[in-house]
Amino acid sequence: MSDETLLRIGILIAGLFVVGAILFFGRPRKPGQGRRVARAADGSGSRREPTLGEQLEDEAAADMGASGEDPTAQAELDLFERSLDGSASTELGKRVSDEFDKIVTVYLAARAGEKLHGPDIVVAAEKAGLVYGHMGVYHRLIEQQPERGPVFSVANIVKPGNFDMATIQELETPAIAFFLTLPAPVAALDAWEAMLPTAERMAELLGGLLLDEQRNNLGRQRIGHIRDELRAYDREREAPPLSKPSRW
């Protein structure tokens, strides 16, 4: 094959690559694609990744302007679908140590004759600031310090206890469990003060009832007792250990 023929073939191949690049990069972007995240209002210049909820709000606002329809239902559907992408790290929310000495549990139960549905749980968990991760359950993590492990976690009370995203659309459960495993990466009382309002928020979103570890309504008196128990736990953890008696 002559050098002239090889040159023509090379030019032809290069031309095909150029045409392909034009077709690929010249396609119009989807609405919202390539948007930049606004800098912090305090002028710090630190970059913060947009949360899934913020993205949904932005896209819902754009959809509302285009169609004039209420975007709420579609936004929640988008949120649910994005949670199925399998991107959650299996290590996200894993405890630093498997050792523990106390667990505090609160149940969020469906009302009589009803069930909690998987898609609703997914949406409520995201709205409450939980993250899907280790063991296929939801976790509250310390902001910017997820490696310290979960402050508390949320699981399905139906065995095996996880939220399988492959079948989440069909999932129905009588209750989910919020559990605080101590020691936690923060003080026990602080962890409780984070878990309780999260459980209350999800109960509001799901229309359920909060129960204590004995499956009784979680009332003010029981909440007060739990706070007292966790204060005592924190005091014991802060107290210096007793010195061992010397041997004769």
From TrEMBL:
It is found in: Cell inner membrane. Pfam families: ZipA_C. It is a single-pass type I membrane protein. Keywords: Cell cycle, Cell division, Cell inner membrane, Cell membrane, Membrane, Transmembrane, Transmembrane helix. Its main location: membrane. InterPro entries: Cell_div_ZipA, ZipA_FtsZ-bd_C, ZipA_FtsZ-bd_C_sf. GO terms for cellular component: cell division site; plasma membrane. The chain crosses the membrane at residues 6-26. Residues 30-55 are annotated as: Disordered. GO terms for biological process: division septum assembly; FtsZ-dependent cytokinesis. It comes from the Bacteria. Residues 100-230 form the ZipA C-terminal FtsZ-binding domain. NCBIfam families: septum_zipA. Interacts with FtsZ via their C-terminal domains. Belongs to the ZipA family. Essential cell division protein that stabilizes the FtsZ protofilaments by cross-linking them and that serves as a cytoplasmic membrane anchor for the Z ring. Also required for the recruitment to the septal ring of downstream cell division proteins. This is Cell division protein ZipA. It comes from Novilysobacter ciconiae. The gene is zipA.
